[in-house]
Write a structure and sequence with these properties.
mainly alpha; 9 helices
Length: 179
């Protein structure tokens, strides 16, 4: 069996690009006042693909990950996105740890935070809010019932496709992403 490491197959640049597309489909807007009068303010000091911005209306500084469940972590963005993806496939923490070559403890902390990102609220943040909806629905609501998940996905396609869904909506996005 080939020993492939997923985190070496995708890069942070594409992950940041994907996050930007998902959270700001109609262009970057200020997380505080929703203004679209936003200027770029260089890249993050330690993560060269992470764009910084400043709102011209209220002066707020923010970046690609501000107010999302991906903000404030030391693991690279690709590790979090892959973790979310693997959670959507119903892998256990241990399996995810093996796939990403991380410690079980680290992965436990990551999956806990990803789930809490939802329950904890931040309802104003679409990216964080919708992850929870999809997570709860797909893994708890229809575990082992792919037909029901597909129906739900079709019915709520318009809403789900804007989010960073775990499960069907995410896979849909992912296919488009790799095409
Ligand atoms: Zn603003």
């Amino acid at each position: 069996m080939l020993n492939l490491n997923l985190t070496r197959l995708i890069d942070d640049a594409k992950c940041y690009e994907t996050v930007r597309q998902l959270r700001w489909e109609a262009g970057v807007c200020c997380p505080k006042c929703s203004s679209v009068q936003v200027i770029k303010r260089g890249k993050d000091d330690t993560q060269p693909d992470r764009q910084r911005y400043q709102c011209k209306d209220c002066g707020t500084h923010f970046d690609d990950l501000t107010d999302t469940i991906f903000a404030g972590h030391h693991q690279p963005l690709r590790a979090w996105i892959l973790c979310l993806y693997l959670m959507g496939l119903n892998l256990s923490n241990r399996q995810i740890a093996q796939e990403l070559e991380l410690d079980d403890d680290d992965v436990h902390a990551m999956t806990t935070q990803l789930r809490q990102g939802i329950v904890g609220g931040k309802p104003e943040v679409q990216l964080a809010g919708e992850v929870e909806c999809d997570e709860v629905y797909v893994t708890a609501g229809h575990k082992g019932n792919p037909e029901a998940v597909r129906k739900k996905g079709d019915k709520d396609g318009a809403t789900a496709s804007k989010g960073f869904g775990v499960g069907a909506p995410w896979q849909k996005r992912n296919r488009r992403f790799s095409a």
